[in-house]
Amino acid sequence: MRYRDAALGILVALTVVTVAAATVDRRAETLSSGERILAGVELTASTRIADLIADPEAHEGQLVQVEGVVVAICQSAGCWTAIDDGQGNQINVKVEDGVIDWRDVTATERYMVAEGLFQAVGEHGAQVFIMEHGAVVSND
């Protein structure tokens, strides 16, 4: 029984390391060869979406960078897109209506690194408003 528990522990640890490495690789690849939206991004590290959701008031109005896989795009005006961090935590990335149509510049399953002002309560929940900053979207 101890050997099976040890083997399971090693398997879980390897899975966590593999997922973390894949995230780092997608981020690096996106930043180096992705499509720049507006001004792009300048911060050197992302804030975890889970941290923003857990304590939204602490981050209100702050410049943050978030990253994740595009899981939804506004179908009426294309003014927001939702990204998921791989752990089920999601946040909207928002632009002013009519400025950018996310349907023209990205698609679901693409990786995005976005930077902007965090708003705990936006039109569709918590969001990162990127108009003065930007994003980078993977090409895959």
Would you tell me the structural class of the helices and strands?
A: alpha+beta
Number of helices: 4
What is the CATH superfamily label? Bacterial OB-fold
Could you give a short account of the major beta sheet? 5 strands, mixed, barrel
What's the average pLDDT?
A: 87
Portion in strands: 35-45%
Write the element-wise H/E pattern from the N-terminal end onward. Answer: HEHHEEEHEE
Report the radius of gyration as a whole number of Å: 16 Å
pLDDT < 50 stretches? 11-21
What is the rounded distance between the termini? Answer: 43 Å
Look at the structure and give the CATH class: Mainly Beta
Per CATH, the architecture is: Beta Barrel
Précis, in short:
The protein has 140 residues and is an alpha+beta fold. It is built from 4 helices and 6 strands.
